[in-house]
Amino acid sequence: MANLKDLAIQLFDIQAVKFGTFTLKSGISSPVYFDLRVIVSYPKIMRSVSEFMWKAVKDAECEYASICGVPYTALPIATCMSADHDIPMLIRRKEAKGYGTKKIIEGHFSAGDKCLIAEDVVTSGSSVLETVKSLQDEGLVVTDAVVLLDREQGGSKRLAQNNIRLHSICSISKLMLILLEAGKVDQKMVNQVQKFITENNTFNPEAKPAEEVKKVLTYVERAAQCTHPLSKRLFSIMQEKRTNLALSADVNTAAELIQMADSIGPYICVLKTHIDIIEDFSADLIQKLSSLAAKHNFIIFEDRKFADIGNTVKQQYGGGMYRISEWADIINAHAVPGPGIIQGLKEVGATKNRACLMLAQMSSKGTLAKDTYTAESVKMAEGNKDFVIGFICTEKLSSDPAMLHMTPGVQLSAGVDGLGQQYLTPQEVITNRESDVIIVGRGITQSANPMQAAKEYQEAGFLAYQALFN
Ligand SMILES: O=c1ccn([C@@H]2O[C@H](COP(=O)(O)O)[C@@H](O)[C@H]2O)c(=O)[nH]1
């Protein structure tokens, strides 16, 4: 591997570093310009650059599971680092494909994995931050970026403000000194470049860090804020399966329920049941349903809508022919009896790590679950966060990121059925009402092709979620 002086001179000699008058992307005129794109024509220099960058992160003891180059110039650099040191690589597309997987990030990863960013030149840090955002949107964690050249115009400070450590191989000042000593530039040019850097700092310490202005949290960030294992798991499933769709499987036989759960399972995060409308209920159905929940990684929500005094709901939840607490991850309850209902349900469900949603609003026309009733339901939920993990509602009701909002009455077109059910679209629910999960029943179960319909709802719901970050 060349030493830094040799590398700097080689970069000058291949015109990856140029002096003159150049108009930058920002419109500013600069006396120096870096064009690292040319290094693809010089494999030895390319390898030298990638080795310097790899060594810098090694010396800094950075932890990461993969590496992602900022497109496009840093892609071949990241490729060399990946191939030479057996570090998996991820590729960030500048635009999602309009067909096929429509992915922005190519490569295999799991939510929560740490990814290192590689870049050729940093000026303000904005290109690095764009890549950071794309990776974070997919659930990856970014703490470090490595760059060949830091133009010292505020990029490292802006990145630090966004909790990204920048490791640079060479600063522009150091590069100028090396080139001066090697007789490649004169003192006048060094002064001119120094003046340019001083006068063109892009960092505004008054600007709020991106984290502070960001209001919408990703599913991964919300999972991290959950203390209840079920809400944590649900947010993780939503990210992993890229779905905020709950299927309301309102069918009347065990065979239909099993068939729905198996065919629609891949597209949903939650399967909602009304177990008392099944005509041939048996323990075998529950066993099969639980196996399908494990196979397709979804949560079972029995939409029992408990509404009695604590002592009665305890028996309804834990006993009777359905023994709901033995298989339903989540149940729901009306607030109408007062807090005793939560107490009763909690006595049965808490030890089994089950959870409850408060019915704070309803989708049906003329519902009385509004205004003060809704506010009191929210209060009841917030006082019992060890068991209540969210709401059945028609809009966001709590600012606590751990609280889930699940909205029924969703179809691809807004409207009403003949019995007062009112429908909102997935976009309206996720974008404008800021709910988290769309609950869809007949829009899927009664469509000519339920699997295709489920895919459409999954896509509409998840796209609406992703659009929250644009
Ligand atoms: O306010 C509420 C609470 C629950 N539901 C239930 O959701 C589904 C909706 O089915 P669609 O066929 O999509 O209308 C159903 O099981 C209801 O019991 C609700 O609609 N509104």
From TrEMBL:
It holds the Pfam family OMPdecase. Gene3D superfamilies: 3.40.50.2020, Aldolase class I. Its EC number is 2.4.2.10, 4.1.1.23. It catalyses: orotidine 5'-phosphate + diphosphate = orotate + 5-phospho-alpha-D-ribose 1-diphosphate; orotidine 5'-phosphate + H(+) = UMP + CO2. Bifunctional enzyme catalyzing the last two steps of de novo pyrimidine biosynthesis, orotate phosphoribosyltransferase (OPRT), which converts orotate to orotidine-5'-monophosphate (OMP), and orotidine-5'-monophosphate decarboxylase (ODC), the terminal enzymatic reaction that decarboxylates OMP to uridine monophosphate (UMP). SMART domains: OMPdecase. Keywords: Decarboxylase, Glycosyltransferase, Lyase, Multifunctional enzyme, Pyrimidine biosynthesis, Transferase. Residues 244-457 form the Orotidine 5'-phosphate decarboxylase domain. One of its GO terms (molecular function) is orotate phosphoribosyltransferase activity. This is Uridine 5'-monophosphate synthase. One of its GO terms (biological process) is 'de novo' UMP biosynthetic process. Homodimer; dimerization is required for enzymatic activity. In the N-terminal section; belongs to the purine/pyrimidine phosphoribosyltransferase family. In the C-terminal section; belongs to the OMP decarboxylase family. Pathway: Pyrimidine metabolism; UMP biosynthesis via de novo pathway; UMP from orotate: step 2/2; Pyrimidine metabolism; UMP biosynthesis via de novo pathway; UMP from orotate: step 1/2. Substrate binds at D250, K272, S363, Q421, G441, R442. The active site is at D303, K305, D308. It comes from Capitella teleta (Polychaete worm).
